[in-house]
Design brief:
InterPro entries: DAAF9_2, DNAAF9. By secondary structure, the protein is α/β, with parallel strands linked by helices. Helix content is about 25%, strand content about 15%. It has one domain. The protein is elongated, with a radius of gyration of 16 Å.
Length: about 120
């Protein structure tokens, strides 16, 4: 967990590796201390997706990929691979799949995690 030094009212939770977003959101919202629980709300949830790591054998999508990015949980999806060429068929397929589960999500292209303009 990282507290913002610029504004102590903001909390950023950064989870590495493949972690269930729903579990993290539920853990944050159900803090055992009622005073702490009343001090915050979740403003946004961002999911990072690497299209190269989204499929298993035989073009099967990894379990929970669509669920992790579903509407009502995730507000932004950051694609961290294959973004150099936006017409890449694999990137487009993964984007279409996630868009079908979450039509309101903002998509950000960030090759190797670097967001550029």
């Amino acid at each position: 967990m990282l507290w913002s030094r610029l504004n102590p009212d903001y909390l950023s939770v950064s989870i590495s590796r493949c972690t269930d977003v729903l579990d993290v959101v539920q853990a944050v919202l159900s803090h055992p201390d009622a005073v702490v629980q009343a001090c915050f709300t979740i403003g946004a949830v961002t999911a990072c997706v690497d299209p190269l790591s989204s499929y298993m054998e035989h073009r099967l999508v990894l379990p929970k990929l669509v669920e992790q990015c579903s509407q009502g949980i995730v507000s932004t999806v950051v694609f961290t691979g294959l973004t150099a060429e936006q017409k890449n068929p694999l990137l487009q397929t993964v984007q279409q799949l996630i868009r079908s589960a979450n039509p309101n999500a903002v998509f950000v292209l960030a090759e190797r995690g670097a967001v550029t303009r």
